[in-house]
Amino acid sequence: MNLTRRAALAALSVTTLALTAACGSGASSSGGGADISVGLALSTLNNPYFVELKQGAEEAAAELGVKLTVVDAQNDATNQVNQVQTFTTQGVKAIIINPVDSKQAGPAAKAAENASIPLIAVDRTVDDGKVASEVTSDNVQGGSLAAIELGRATSGGVVHLQGIPGASATRDRGFGFEQGLNSGAIKVVASQPADFDRAKGLDVTTNLLQSNPDLKGVFADNDEMALGAIKALGDRAGKDVHVVGFDGTPDGIKAVEDGTMAATIAQQPKVLGRQAVEQAVKAAKGETVQQVVSVEVKVVTKKNVAEFKK
Amino acid sequence: MTTATARTGVDARKILSENGALGGLVVLVVALSILAPTFLSTQNLINVGVQAAVVAVLAFGSTFVIVSGGIDLSVGSVAALSAMVGAWSSAEAGLPGPVALLLGLATGVAAGLINGAMVSFGRLPAFIATLAMLSIARGLTLVVSQGTPLATPDVVTFLGSNLVPQVPLPLLIMLVFFGITGFVLSRTYAGRSMYAIGGNEEAARLSGIDVRRQKLVIYALSGLFAAVAGMLLAGRLASAGPQAAVGYELDAIAAVVIGGASLSGGVGRAFGTLVGALVLAVLRNGLNQLQVSPFWQQVVIGVVIALAVLLDTLRRRSR
Fold first, then answer.
1. What is the Rg, in whole angstroms, of the alpha carbon atoms belonging to chain B?
2. Among A150, B16, B80, B196, which residue carries the largest CB count within 10 Å?
3. Which residue ranges make up each domain of chain B?
4. Does B146 touch chain A (CB under 8 A)?
5. Taking a contact as any Cβ pair under 8 Å apart, which residues of chain B between 219 and 238 contact chain A?
6. What ipTM was reported for this prediction?
């Protein structure tokens, strides 16, 4: 028992050390003799989209010569509150938060406010709390654009693949999509969750094809699920069934180019990350910041796909 | 139990008592056939089989661990890491597909061996050792992939596709691994020691089983099966994702337990696990076809898991 406990403790301390080392190396990567230090609390790095957002932020930090510390909440809202609290004790001059969930980011905002550190929200808003600047792309508008684009590509019964039930991106994109439906000749025959996951997108679409064999279209709340749906549709994708995704990830853009995806709603995660750092630096220096920075979402179709290839 | 009762109901009772979850599966299938007209088509049943394959293979590996009284929480992450190493080796490092596949499988075995070493030589509780590996393997998946999905080599994509039309390879691979699992559990020294260790570890040690070495074998097998499952998942999508198979370890454990295994060790069979994995796949398929609200789906899945295990417990008690 004692041995087990000691071994567990040893393992724990090793992990902690390793983690500290890992964090340390991440923090020092973008030094540049800066006296301004900015914290970036990301919701997750488990998604190419947020990896791009981080890259945009790091590029901007390097150009502006500020020190950027990045932490990842692994999609856990409580974890994120702790991370923001930790930032307040580390002497950062501004905090950028990419909330795990807009509705659960209140305590994090409170922690920053109590420490008098300006808070910048990126990609998702903070519903309940004071922020100096919001840098977001409009998910509701994106959902509506997706519905319009799908209505342009096809008419008849379509399926809506939803993200994680209750997540803010799921709510906003779904809400926008339903609003956009009014303008077209498409009708939603099924709405089922596939949790933003490609494998689940494949399975759920396969299942829905059984009960709706004459399906005409699919709207997925993100490109990963849309790519799963395309797998499920096989040869039908892009021919008699049209798929619209969301995010404009490299794989999604490629599918649009190949013609298997009718369109994707591209956000510009790198621009989001860059703008957030620019606002954060302004706030840290006590300059005026722009309260709302709206980064455009763009409909990517085969016509304009070349602009989005990297 | 008297000879008379045993004689009258021997067949039905034998099948039911050995395969409690089968009853649950049958009830589920009958109910869905009535509620969803398209459920009982050949194509849909094949779909269910394919959709069960990844979790089933993970769960076969977990059966070894659970029978021996352990637990492996790392299988989902190890599956993702193995697939990612395979994809990276071919897409980024330019190695030939089969080599990349083998490297991926070796990654799974290595992760399993580390789990086994932490449990047997480090004397860490299996829960903690494999929880640590869950995090390490997921993190390494992100490190290797840099957070973006990578295309899988052709040989891996082949594993996830149809052998001939209507005959999906994942389904066949699931059945092959079902056979391997049954064979290992009942016909090999390693398998028999799993039951012995799970039944009473001290007694197993005293009777001459090298418990430490067997645990290495057990967790290595679990890692290998996880790697195979990861390849199947990535193959089906032609892409290895950094966020693939998150939470699958819980599905695998649920499948094993629905299949009648005991989390305290010593009990469990390959057939039960197969049925358990099918129960989960049938359920998810049916929920989609019935278009149950996303908010209720998780509730229904939880209730069915609880009912399936409860049914099994009651049946055992009444025996």
1. 20
2. B80
3. 20-314
4. yes
5. 233, 236-238
6. 0.79
